[in-house]
Amino acid sequence: MKKFSLLFVLMMTVVFILGACSDDESVDSENENGDEDVVTLSLWNRYSELRGGFAQLIKDFEAEHPGIRIETQDTPEAETQLRTALSEGNLPDMWTNIVDLSELMEVDAVKNLDEIFTEDVKAQFQDGTWYENGTTADGSVYGFPLAAPQSKAMIMYYNKDVFDMLGLTEDDIPASWEEFKALGQTIVDESNGSVYPIVWNNPGWANEQLVSMMGTAITPEVPWQENYKEGVPQVYTEGKIESAEFIKELLDEGLMSPESVEIGLGEAEALFAVGQSAFLWSGDWVGRQLVVETEFENWGVAPLPTKDGNPYYYHAGSEATSIRVSNDTEHWEEVKTFLEYALEHLHETVYVNTGAGLPAKEDVGGEPPFEQYNDILELESQLAIPVPKPAELNPDIVEFNRAYRNKLEVGGIGDAVVGYITGNIDDIDSEIEQIDHDMKDAFMETLDEFPEVSQDDYIYPNWEPFEPYTVEKYDELR
Amino acid sequence: MANNLELSQKSTSKDTSNLKTLQKRKAIWAYIFLAPQIIVFFIFSAYPIVMSYVYSFYEWSGIGPLNDFIGLANYQQLLTSERFWNSALVSIYYILGTTVLGVGGALILAIILNDQKLKSKGFYRAIYFLPVVTTTAIVGIIIGSIFGINGFFNQLLVDFNIIDKPIPWLTDPVLAVIILIVIGSWKGLGINMVYWLAGLQSIPNELYESAQLDGAGFWATLRHVTLPLLKPIAAVIILLSLVSGINAFDLVKTLTNGGPNFATETMDLFIYNYAFSSQLGGGQVRMGYASAAGVLLGLFTFVISMVFGAASFGKQIIKLKGNKKKKGGVKAL
Amino acid sequence: MITTKSARVMIHVFLLLFGIVWIYPFVWMVFSSLKTNKEFLTSGTKLIPEDFQWQNYSEAWITANFSGYFWNTVIFTVSTVIIVIVLSSLTGYALGRIDFPGKKTIMICVVAIMFIPKGYTIIPLFKLVNAMGLDNSILGIIVAESSGAHVLFILMFASFFANLPKSIEEAAEIDGAGVLTIFTKVMLPLSMPIVATTAIMQFIWTWSSFLVPLVLTISKPELRTLAVGMENFVQTYAVDFSGMAAGATISLLPVMIIFIIMQRYFIEGVAGAVKS
């Protein structure tokens, strides 16, 4: 027993001494960096494709403004991280958008940026950049826009190495599901099973996006979760169901890499880049990821295959990619300096020069690092189409929407689709019908609670699918 | 916990007033000794417990003031939520699975390792105990990598021609729950083994010897001597295993994160998802709803320990009370 | 009990084979951490890497900041263990050794605490730590982790102290020692077995603790423990598999080595808990 206590005390002592040493080190390093005159700003970034671009931008900025340092932090679990910081009153000075703007406004956490975004400045951004509960609230600006609203539509990347190996040309790129399956079978046969036609991924959001986009080729009146003809939430559409069935068929018929059901986007990109699959479905930012993260350049882009090869679209401005500023920042002047600098340089450095997607600002310079960038740009401008945003006409919708969503068990159909593909759900039709039903019930129930909101707020008679819903169209209804 | 009555009786010869002040002084010291624990308990245990009940009556995102009192609506919604019941079911599978595998397996191992003549016992004991000292969250990540579609385990099975196509261990809802149970049992088996060994070692050797003299073989001894004598400790081990199975958060979060489609979501992961993530919650962060689920989880734990406790402890508590004075206390180490 | 020689050999073979399977995940982890990322993906079931990539460790230790996570975990664990020992030994001594008014009530409370439905206390606990201004230091997670009543340990200490012979105390009292002196100089040293059991059990729990550090440090990378840092690393660099294995090895191996060196004490300590 004595020996034990001796050992124990010894262990604890060692551990403490080591602990103390490391403490000293950290104190030292802080002192080294902690020049008195330098102001340090914190920026939390959740977009992995922007990491490199931000690093460059900040390097350039710090060279010009030696009094300001900017520390970036990657936040892979952005929402949880921001929420905990928020309830601690410990927000970073800046972060890339996460947590609904209305929620942030309610606790006065986010800074009004009207000082920077005058009407002239706002006009330099693309149509559709400014919208309620995204970049603005009650007409004031609360977000520094990063990516263009007309982006984030999914497209199909194809591996030219695989194409060359199998003697395929651009003319072989499939436009319809049928063609995709036929070509897929050829790819499997000719590569002796070493190359899969497609590698997909399993996050719920990605699956919901894919089936919704493919679905618009069949039922275009439902771009996302609402039907703006009938003014109700709707996720139960032929388009979504058939698209989910198509994905499942690919997996079952051996045309999709079996890993697809358990990997995230990053892994899918990596597998595509090493030639394990001929195609990859993903967003506009993936070009940069392929070239920089996986050092693979020999690829091209095309639209997603759809049923019968019909066109599809995605609702523009699906996500207000932007920088938000903490209302509690102690260094507003420095933040302003940075944002003003960013206004001139960010979109060029972070987006165009890295190829990480399409910038929100119009007419920015820069040199895309790979030639396919312009192809992506062109596809996105066709595929991401503005649709009605009910909150533009009735600001009470923002509050209404939150109350409505609180009543829901699931936020969308993504997890159901994943469950269906992995074999957890047999009957996708009734599963989605149930979600649809719950959504409609919750919606109607919430309408009763909000006299200032009515179903008419969700009906847009002058909207036609595939036709951009512009400012003028809203004015027609006002 | 026997009180010190005897002390006061013995010392009657001493000056009584002196004794009284001494006792008073001691009592004051007792309060001083208790104070830190009591203060810490009230601040960091009692207050959070009470608050978790309070939150459960509100619709609250965790940010901003707590002002939207909704009564029992969160509970109503929970009790009709399919996802919540599914998570309760997954938790029950996990609890029962890890208890049967982890406690049962540990007993077999402990009986083997309790053999006096077996060599290198210490070595085996160390090996089987090793997973206990590892961090569950990190183990989950490693295991996730081993059981991936192209992971080590599938490749091994393919190499040995046991299967021709990789098996989706972590994305098939049934297999994923089984993997969780197997890994949870593997992780906890070592500690149960040590508990069993402690129980086995408290059985006096004479009993085995007399059994041998009676001509009882290995199985007969096991059945008539060993197992009956292990009953009291078995109750403790099973209860500990049940309760630890309720907190499966670390493993589930890092191994499957509840997927696919919440098929492996346990109750504590359900709560975490609603409390901290709108993506995996219902599209909104709902601390009040999560707290209500937490209260139900607490009740669930309470019921399990009560039912089990009543079933197995009922008689023993009475026995223990009688034995206490004779049985000189703790025999640790 | 088992007599035949062949049965004995069988048992050894079984224990060994099963033992290899048992710890294989850790062996796999260590060797995977020395592969290149490509080798990790393509080497199949081959265990030994072609070239040992030691730089995976320096990258994980420095670039991915596992050094910071490691020391945070050490400070976090050691502090928690000490606090828990102090709290539960004091409480146990008062309950087991001293007569005072209200003792019974407190005893009943202690036992009752075990059975109160706890609810989901992490949310209020998190709010509380923030309200106390401890959210920006490692003290926050230490306090949160070591808080609460450690009923098992308290009962262990109480029954141990209650069963010590009276003469020990009386002798010290005659020498004029006060309660505090008796406790620190006489009683606590005697209770070393219980202290050891408490230390070891709490060490294992705290080193592996995940939920409390996760919620309290998710937005503060400089305070993260190994478990949280590891989870974050995997989320950030999903495709850096060998880096992941290196980080996991850094996180798990030190405790495993401490365990192997001191395994007898670990196992006896844990056994001590259930015996009482």
UniProtKB/TrEMBL annotation, chain C:
It comes from the Bacteria. Pfam families: BPD_transp_1. The lineage of its organism: Bacteria, Bacillati, Bacillota, Bacilli, Bacillales. GO terms for cellular component: plasma membrane. Residues 70-262 form the ABC transmembrane type-1 domain. It is a multi-pass membrane protein. It is found in: Cell membrane. The chain crosses the membrane at residues 12-31, 69-94, 106-126, 138-162, 238-261. Signal peptide: none annotated. One of its GO terms (biological process) is transmembrane transport. This is ABC transporter permease subunit. The keyword rRNA-binding does not apply. InterPro entries: MetI-like (IPR000515), MetI-like_sf (IPR035906).
